[in-house]
Amino acid sequence: MSTHFAFDLDGTVTTQELLPAIANHLGLRNEMRLLTELTLSGHIDFESSFRLRCAILQSVPISDVQSIVAEVPLHGEIAAFIMSRRQQCSVVTGNLDVWIEPLISRLGCSVFCSSALTDGNRLIRPQHVLHKSKPIRELQARGCKVVAVGDSVNDIPMFEVADVGIAFGGVHEPAHGLAEIADYLTFDGGALCRLLRTL
After folding, report:
1. Is 133 in a helix, a strand, or coil?
2. How many C-alpha atoms does 56 have within 13 Å on its Cβ side?
3. Is CB count within 10 Å lower at the N or C end of the chain?
4. Mean pLDDT for the stretch of residues 182-190
């Protein structure tokens, strides 16, 4: 059985959460921070929060969002691990396909993400919001042992079905509920990559 590594994007592969980074550039920091905090604490479910955040950013041209996202730094060691094993790695994120394209192009791995309904350079609305357990089950159906890496409440569905779950506190403390069901917990990217090489 081959091993496949499924990485959350925000705060795991990136060193910043994407939507707050976008909001900061657009002067919407307070609105986005409140929604992010409510989501991370589990007071609003991910899909409802994500749709609200998309509505806030709906009027912003997609190309403007991509330009901001392209500048978000990746965690060097984790990105290097993914790029050296592109066939064994996937990004699993609730973020929209049209927004994260610059980062996925850099990583060169497969991606499971939410999709957007667009009109030219404008976002109309999210067309499909990813439930993170679905790609894990798809990978397992292909005969893969899946190692999931994440940090947030919305990664819990991924951990619940993965063969191995690693809670990573690279940007912030892993969500309490996630840490409770994780097989491993680490706060250092180098230590994470060393662990991944043993699995």
Report:
1. helix
2. 22
3. N
4. 96
The whole-model pTM stands at 0.90
The answer to whether 172 and 187 are in contact (CB under 8 A) is no
**Structure tokens belonging to residue 189:** 């990217």
- Residues composing the chain: 199
Which residues does 66 contact at the CB level (< 8 Å), separation at least 6?
98, 99, 101, 102
Judged against a pLDDT cut of 80, whether residue 69 lies above it is answered with yes
End-to-end CA separation in angstroms for the chain: 12
CA distance to 10, 35, 172, 188, 197, per residue, from 50 (Å)? 13, 9, 19, 28, 33
Which tens digits make up the pLDDT trace of 93-115? 999 999 999 999 999 999 999 99
Q: What is the pLDDT of residue 88?
A: 97
In DSSP notation, 73-94 reads PB-HHHHHHHHHTGGGEEEEEE
Cβ–Cβ < 8 Å for 91, 98: no
Helix, strand or coil, per DSSP, at residue 69: helix
Single-letter amino acid, residue 131:
H
- What's the rounded mean pLDDT across residues 32-36? 75
Q: Tokens standing for 36?
A: 């992010």
